[in-house]
Specification:
The chain is α+β, with helices and mostly antiparallel strands. 29% of the residues lie in helices and 24% in strands.
Length: 627
């Protein structure tokens, strides 16, 4: 989140990522004055108190106190969206047992006139609201509470009051287990397990993990001499040795991020915190925040062979790209609605490109593994039928319908290609085109230019600003042509000659076997069903086959199971005609599929494909992917 802090936030410039021991006790007016001087949260208009006595049943008890409430009713509500997400999420559904009282402890009536909030009237200038929160979904968006931890995304956890957006907030946690500590980007306040935020935007952008996590921390000094502390708080069931190996990998990878942008972002309180839960009850995810990121994975570090590094690298790019180099449409973030922007191809897609590239440059991924991922991404986008329905800006604006959004009715998968891979292949094209244009140019140079001209000063950008930045780096003609072709429209370049500069080859995945476009799976009764809608260019689509149909026979032979059906199809070559009988919504149909060639392709090193690679191509590859 891009936050306007002012003088108040500048007063505290250091904070630990974990809860601190309370300061030495003082009494009376002296203690009150000292607290207000050292802890801006002491002036909070909103204070929260959070306990977990019923953690076994996924409940938290939360009391919110609103001070200096103006005359008239006070409305409190739950958010409907969350920083880093672009869809609606109805957090109010897990809030209940709401009650209120005034500053003297007198009960106040609570009126609920809509699904999202509550209204309290008749107060004396103070309103104290108590409620129960249920949370059992551990990822970057929701809350999970159990006897092992409290994993809290703030919009999913805390009521907030209209009119208090710019006032300081104070929160105190009461851990369920005395061994639990607190990992958060919130600065520490006075008192045990107390923290504060300068305003609502920063508070809602500050996920918090409360558990017996393990902590690793180290100082970093960027190229400009700025010094910060990076912290890695990991709640997992693995060994300290596993965590030490992971920490070493993290250090090597994030060093590449700092090298890419030339400097660290300004971490507002001197720290950046990776908050990670690697536990069986967690749902895999990653979510960026201004001075932290939260990462979840069901697997342990050793079990996953440290693959969690992929999510960590992606989210860390967001420290620059999104959190400070930020789309204008997301500033400020509106918690009452979805927050769309046409620039997710850049905000998320370019980040998707750089996540694995930083791991490759750090030496934590082989060239072949990098190309395997890159090739799959490139093939998926280049061959996607969805691009006929819009370019990357259109796909970005569809984010509220797809970004963990849920609906009952199915969506046609052939009309949408995610802005994550779409943006990544655009980044690839621009990177290789810039390097082709001038050896001194690259996507790295473009990202640094945008950072120094907009990101470091936190000036939100529009699509026109991104095009202007490219023109400043190259020229107006090149920038306009690139944006007109691949951003405002859906055309992509021919990647084969671009990749050939690095001695890389694009080749079909399976040119020898016939391709039907069928995705088959076992049905509930052991029958064979079509598991996904065929692509419009697939032979199965032309034959009228659709998702949910039951395949009865191929080439006149009854179908026994999905594996044997696919094996039978694999015996055919492109151009072969295959009869198919299928039941579609109770009606048995017959058709003929003329098999084609699978459009999928892969990207491999020329050496692997038996193609000679010149020293110049090897030098290009090393400059791009690292040695």
């Amino acid at each position: 989140m891009t936050i306007k802090f002012g003088v108040m936030a500048a007063a505290v410039m250091a904070v630990t990522a974990v809860s601190q021991a309370p300061a030495q006790a003082q009494t009376g007016a002296q203690a009150e004055a000292a607290q207000r001087a050292q802890d801006p949260g002491a002036r909070a208009g909103t204070s929260y108190d959070v306990s977990f006595a019923n953690a076994a049943h996924h409940e938290a008890q939360i009391t919110a106190t609103y001070a200096r409430v103006p005359a008239g009713p006070l409305r409190v509500q739950m958010a409907r969206s969350s920083p880093g997400r672009y869809a609606i999420h109805e957090f109010a559904k897990n809030v209940y047992a709401v009650s209120a009282k005034d500053g003297a402890g007198r009960p106040l009536p609570v009126i609920r006139s809509d699904p999202y909030g509550w209204t309290v009237a008749g107060h004396d200038g103070t309103v104290v609201v108590t409620y129960t929160l249920y949370g059992d979904w551990g990822d970057g968006t929701y809350a999970q509470i159990d006897t092992s931890h409290a994993h809290l995304n703030m919009p999913a956890t805390f009521l907030w009051a209209q009119g208090y957006d710019d006032q300081p907030i104070r929160v105190r946690f009461h851990p369920f287990d005395p061994r639990w500590r607190i990992a958060t980007q919130l600065p520490a306040g006075q008192g045990t397990n107390s923290f504060w935020a300068p305003n609502l935007q920063y508070f809602m952008d500050s996920p918090t993990e409360i558990s017996a996590f393990s902590l690793r921390e180290w100082p970093i000094t960027d190229a400009l001499g700025k010094r910060y502390v990076v912290r890695l708080a990991v709640h997992h069931a693995g060994s300290d040795a596993d965590l030490d190996v992971y920490t070493a990998k993290v250090k090597r990878v994030i060093a590449q991020h700092y090298a890419l942008f030339g400097q660290a972002p300004r971490y507002d309180y001197g720290t950046y915190t990776f908050i990670a839960d690697y536990l069986p009850q967690i749902t895999g995810d990653g979510m960026e925040h201004r001075n932290s990121t939260i990462i979840t994975d069901k697997r342990g570090l050793a079990e996953a062979k440290f693959a969690q590094l992929n999510t960590l690298s992606h989210e860390f790019v967001h420290s620059w790209n999104v959190e400070r180099l930020r789309p204008a449409e997301l500033e400020p973030f509106d918690f009452t609605r979805a927050n769309p922007t046409p620039s997710l191809w850049f905000a998320e897609g370019f980040t998707q490109y750089y996540g694995p590239l930083m791991i490759r440059r750090a030496g934590e991924m082989s060239v072949d593994d990098f190309l395997r991922t890159l090739g799959g991404t490139l093939s998926g986008v280049v061959t996607s039928p969805a691009r006929r329905y819009g370019g990357p800006e259109e796909m970005s604006l569809r984010a509220p319908f797809v970004d963990a959004a849920k609906s009952i009715d199915p969506v046609n998968p052939n009309i949408f290609v995610s802005y994550y891979p779409y943006g990544a292949v655009i980044a690839l094209a621009l990177d290789l085109e810039l390097r082709q244009r001038d050896p001194r140019l690259s996507l790295d140079a473009y990202m640094r230019h945008l950072w120094t001209t907009r990101g470091a000063s936190e000036r939100p950008y529009t699509p026109a600003d991104l095009e202007r930045g490219l023109a400043e780096l190259t020229d107006a003609g090149f920038a306009k042509a690139f944006f007109d072709r691949s951003i405002h429209a859906s055309a992509l370049p021919d990647y084969a000659p671009l990749l050939r500069q690095a001695g890389l080859v694009m080749r079909p995945v399976d040119p020898a076997h016939g391709w039907s476009g069928l995705t088959l799976a076992a049905g509930e009764a052991g029958d064979v069903i079509v598991a996904a809608p065929p692509r419009p260019d697939a032979p199965a689509y032309a034959a009228g086959v659709e998702r949910g149909d039951m395949v009865l026979a191929l080439d006149g032979a009854s179908v026994g199971d999905a594996a044997s059906a696919l094996a039978a199809l694999a015996t055919h070559r492109p151009g072969d005609r295959v009869a198919i009988r299928f039941r579609q919504r109770g009606v048995v149909r017959d058709a003929v599929m003329t098999l084609g060639t699978d459009p999928s392709f892969e990207v491999v090193r020329g050496e692997t494909a038996g193609v000679a690679v010149s020293p110049a191509q090897m030098a290009f590859r090393a400059a791009w992917l690292g040695k």
